[in-house]
Design a protein that fits this description.
two-stranded antiparallel ribbon, 16% strand, 487 residues, 33% helix, Alkaline Phosphatase, subunit A, globular
Amino acid sequence: MNPQDQFKLLMTRRQFFGRSVTGIGAAALASILNQDLFGAAGVVRKDSMPLPGLPHFAPKAKRIIYLMQSGAPSHIDLFNYKPGLEKYRGQEIPASVTMGQRLTTMTGKQANKSVLPSITKFAQHGRNGTWISDFLPHTASIVDDICIVKSMFTEAINHAPAVTFFLTGSEMPGRPSMGSWLTYGLGCENENLPAFVVMTSRDKENSCGQIFYDYYWGSGFLPSKYQGVKFRGEGDPVLYLSNPAGMSTSVRRGILDDLAQLNEIKQKEMWDPEIATRISQYEMAYRMQASVPELSDLSTEPESTFEAYGPESRRPGSYARNCILARRLAEKGVRFIHLLHAGWDQHKNLPTQLKIQCTDTDQPSAALIKDLKQRGLLEDTLVVWGGEFGRTPFCQGDPAAKEFGRDHHPRCFSLWMAGAGVKPGISFGETDDYAHNVVKDPVHVHDLQATILGQMGIDHTKLTYKFQGRHFRLTDVHGKAVQEILT
């Protein structure tokens, strides 16, 4: 018996109605509406094209480089200078300040929550005398090019939900990531590279137990062709790009053409967007065979590049090397470049690990800004540096034992932004004397997301996708662009 005939005989009643319900509904609708409305064939949007009506207004940014510092850098020790905390050292932080703060299980039952001033020294830098920790000398050198937001706050108190909230607008996995939203809305500029690229790294000491979940760069309920493509730190940047042994390029081209024809037949039968995704991704993989190896080959970079990005820049998989690749991706027109680096979760090793983490990331981050600026790319590249929340102004553990740190703190923290219409050389927002609460110009996670989309020419309230009967958006039903930090 013909396999297709056998398949039809085995089809259940549920399968029949599941596959035919759309056609039945369309036939019924056609009988009561003007049939001329159904004369034109549906137009499939090319991956390079934006959605109709986008951008909503003239964009300041063509691309985003998001330097996600997973584990939460301590704002108290790096950006939020509070010299007055020294007089409260060792004292219990007042209840009038904590106001019933939600705590993790790591410090919720800790008997004493004594104030811990910054373990670093601060100095003023730049034309506005911005206070920066001495752990960040290279960031201090670009302080006139960045905007430090000191009044960030969030609801999430644990790492994975907090990172997910920043990147998808929800603490629960399943929503599209920011890069997916931008790719869906604006399309791609370079058809030989993905519009959304992800690279990960971690501290050499493996001191931080944070995991990078695929849903951080997933497409959620959007078609899967909008998910981020992860570049590996070692070996081939993307798996299965190389031709198998014994297969020539022409043979592979023929196989892909045959697969595309079979998939198109199935697409006409099922109208499943994932089949269209499969067709386009096979083609993208074929084009990436040439573009990705060339992109990841740093042998053409001059020695001055490695000197600028620091000693780790030659090590595959390092944060410094990823920063160089981020600049190269920006030059190639990649829409959203996402670097995630773990190592900032210093609960009991703050005195030792904070310095190491800053050494690993400070020079490459600053070098990236200088490099983009020197090449004229900073004008239309928005760079964001920051973690998922801050650290508590009280101590976790016993300072006398030299094994202490800071717990998670969502009530206030700092990040910085640069380029693409962000006011350079300023600090925005203020916290109280304990660096515990925001007291001026609060910036919520959804506000940051709205600001980022706005710089790409998108009204965050209008970029939506209907799923399960509801129109979703990155910022949920919240958020407003922070106009005060924009030119």
